[in-house]
Automatic annotation (TrEMBL):
Classification via Pfam families: DXP_synthase_N, Transket_pyr, Transketolase_C
Protein name per Swiss-Prot or TrEMBL: 1-deoxy-D-xylulose-5-phosphate synthase
Keyword terms, alphabetized: Isoprene biosynthesis, Magnesium, Metal-binding, Thiamine biosynthesis, Thiamine pyrophosphate, Transferase
Name of encoding gene: dxs
Highest taxon of source: Bacteria
Function: Catalyzes the acyloin condensation reaction between C atoms 2 and 3 of pyruvate and glyceraldehyde 3-phosphate to yield 1-deoxy-D-xylulose-5-phosphate (DXP).
UniProt similarity note: Belongs to the transketolase family. DXPS subfamily.
NCBIfam families reported for this sequence: dxs (TIGR00204), PRK05444.2-2 (NF003933)
Organism: Pelotomaculum propionicicum
Length: 638
């Protein structure tokens, strides 16, 4: 398809002189580029397809980068990227060295605020509005937030504060009646009523007309004035937002560019906080995505003509095995319940939800609430398994500490997407969980070497009378043979997989098989390695570690996690506490940096996490030559 108009758009200013007809044509060209590109790169297609007209309207009315546009989550910002000077690089979307799948200020001045996690946009917009006013500047600030992101507590904290401060700012609520899948809760129901109930959509207008018709100074006007507020509750859409201090405009059709431009111009001219309610369709303009919006929310490569997703015949994922194990555990123990925060399918709980609907809770994008609610479920005699991605669980640190661990409640954390997740990049890698969990008393922390061990660790966690976390990676498992049934592992006991007298490779989780591979290669070079599958980060298998570290005199810890405060740090703390100084220790893991986007294999190799690089590190160490290595080495105790 010839992108006649899109070719002329090198900056958002280029769309401002366009007619509505041209903008509609441009929307088609953008959709074409979105579909063609994401079919190759994978990415958040359905959310971005639903935002094309709203994005064009935004850039027609506002003058980015002077005016600030803040995207919530940022997964719907692809058209924004295309029209803000990144059209020609768009084919590098989510590829290593290419443009990010989320807004990044380092990438463009048009990305006013970095994002990836949900429900931050209103807080960020308010901060920018306050900064503007403190500096005496004059520009607009706009937050774009979805109805799913609106279920997050932070969004309400920010609405509450923004209404109080009465700052000039605009919130665009992009309501497509969906989170990743079905949205959760009362807010979603409220928005749906505004969409569908004719009384809501006509009520405000009619009330205003009535007020205009009643003669000034009449008893009737005084009466209407008196009851206006109560009437509003009955008929005015957006009353909830109005009560929070926002002027509510809408609902409008978010695919009608003219309507979008009109309402945004009105919003721009309005003093104080304004909320624009736009109705859109997730996946708009691409039939496979319209009819299957959750499948095309975040999608891998697919055939753009048929919409068929390209299958890879990989082993079942860790997530699949988690889901299957949960069903077995629930079958055997009535006390087990499952909790997720808007990620039912992502965490593998779809079948569990179908089989045990009363024991399954999707709380919406509300990780903090999920954790505290689970602590209380445990107080009430249940054993909740809270399945949350590592990166999103960061949000709930205090709830894990204050509500679960301080009260020593039996809650299992299924920490999915740990380690390097790949193309979602820095906002989504799960590289900090050992660190934030390890610091909390009472917490047991495990990481399986493969999907078979995952089922045993889950069984171990749910049989433990206190908090326990099992962290496992995104994507395919190792193809390990699955034991027919799960078993409970001894707490704090590791597994010695190979014995050798020259060096000890002490690995955790996804790095264990890599250590086994490295040991085999080292044997070929005449270096005999002991390989230990640590299994537990907390409690550590102290005696085993000390024994083999002492026997070989050379210890390598290997983890897919940042080195600061991670597994290697725990081992160093142990050796230090025991006064062991005659072991040469090297910790391999991710250095003190944020890891970019790219394929997991590429990113791991970039940070020294491949069998060959481990072999090289060991050989260099044995030869005493490793002091120049930078990336993979933080501690070198000898
Ligand atoms: C804190 C946090 N939890 C979960 C997610 C995963 N997530 C990304 S988008 C999304 C749904 C967002 O729904 P909505 O805001 O309505 O946007 P839509 O996809 O419908 O355009 C979820 C749950 C996240 N990014 N951040
Ligand atoms: C935008 C977002 O946060 C999610 O859509 C995330 O990208 C999902 O990741 P998975 O593909 O690993 O489920
Ligand atoms: Mg939505």
């Amino acid at each position: 398809m010839m992108s006649r108009l899109l070719k002329q758009v090198n900056s958002p200013r280029d769309i401002r002189p366009m007619t509505y007809q041209q903008l509609q044509e441009l929307a088609k060209e953008i959709r074409h580029l979105l579909i063609e590109t994401v079919a190759k790169t994978g990415g958040h297609l359905a959310p971005s397809l639903g935002m094309v007209e709203l994005t064009l309207g935004l850039h027609k009315v506002f003058d980015s980068p002077v005016d600030k546009i803040v995207w919530d989550v940022g997964h719907q910002s692809y058209s924004h990227k295309i029209i803000t000077g990144r059209r020609d690089e768009f084919d590098t979307l989510r590829q290593f060295g290419g443009i990010s799948g989320f807004p990044r200020p380092a990438e463009s001045v048009h990305d006013a605020f970095g994002t990836g996690h949900s429900s931050t946009s209103i807080s960020a917009a308010l901060g920018l509005a306050i900064a503007r006013d403190l500096k005496g500047e004059d520009h607009s600030v706009v937050a774009v937030i979805g109805d799913g992101a609106m279920t997050g507590g932070m969004a309400f904290e920010a609405l509450n504060h923004a209404g109080h401060l009465k700052k000039d700012m605009i919130v665009i609520l992009n309501d497509n009646e969906m989170s990743i899948a079905q949205n959760v809760g009362a807010m979603s129901g409220y928005l749906t009523r505004m969409r569908t109930d004719p009384m809501y959509s006509k009520g405000k207008e009619e009330l205003e007309q009535l007020m205009r018709k009643v003669p000034i100074g009449s008893t009737l006007l005084r009466l209407v004035e008196r009851f206006k507020d109560s009437l509003k509750y009955l008929v005015v859409p957006g009353m909830l937002f109005e009560e929070m201090g926002f002027k509510y405009l809408g609902p409008i059709d978010g695919h009608d560019i003219k309507a979008v431009v009109n309402v945004l111009q009105r919003a721009k001219a309005t003093k104080g906080p304004v909320l624009v309610h736009a109705l859109t369709k997730k996946g708009k303009g691409y039939r496979p995505a319209e009819s299957n919006p959750d499948r095309f929310h975040g999608v891998g490569p697919f055939d753009p003509v048929s919409g068929e997703i390209i299958k890879n015949n990989k082993a079942p994922s860790y997530t699949d095995i988690f889901g299957r194990t949960m069903i077995k555990l629930a079958r055997d123990n009535d006390n087990i319940v499952a909790v997720t925060a808007a990620m039912t399918s992502g965490t593998g709980l779809t079948n569990f939800a179908r089989l045990y609907p009363k024991r399954f809770f999707d709380v919406g994008i509300a990780e903090q609430h999920a954790v505290t609610m689970s602590a209380a479920l445990a107080a009430g005699g249940y054993h909740p398994v809270v399945a949350i991605y590592s990166t999103f669980l960061q949000r709930a640190f205090d709830q894990i500490l204050h509500d679960v661990s301080l009260q020593n409640k039996p809650v299992t954390f299924a920490v999915d997407r740990s380690g390097v997740v790949g193309e979602d990049g820095a906002t989504h890698h799960g590289l900090f969980d050992f660190a934030y969990l390890r610091s909390i008393p009472n917490m047991v922390i495990m990481a399986p070497k493969d999907e078979n061990e995952l089922q045993h660790m889950l069984a171990t966690a749910v049989s433990h009378p206190g908090p326990a976390a099992v962290r496992y990676p995104r994507g395919a498992g190792c193809g390990a043979r699955l034991d027919d049934d799960y078993m409970v592992l001894p707490l704090g006991k590791s597994e010695v997989l190979r014995k050798g007298s020259d060096v000890t490779l002490l690995a955790i989780g996804s790095m264990v098989n890599l250590a086994v591979e490295a040991a085999a290669a080292l044997a070929g070079k005449g270096i005999e390695a002991t390989v230990i599958n640590a299994r537990f980060v907390k409690p550590l298998d102290e005696e085993c570690i000390i024994h083999y570290a002492g026997r070989t005199g050379n210890l390598f810890t290997i983890e897919e996690h940042v080195l600061s405060c991670g597994f290697g740090s725990a081992v160093l703390e142990l050796l230090s506490a025991r006064g062991i100084r005659d072991v040469r220790v090297q910790c391999i893991g991710i250095p003190d940096t944020f890891v970019e986007h790219g394929t997991p294999a590429l990113l791991k190799a970039r940070y020294g996490l491949s069998a060959e690089q481990v072999v090289r590190a060991v050989v260099e160490k044995k030869a005493g030559r490793n002091r120049t290595r930078r990336l993979a080495v933080v501690s070198d105790s000898n």
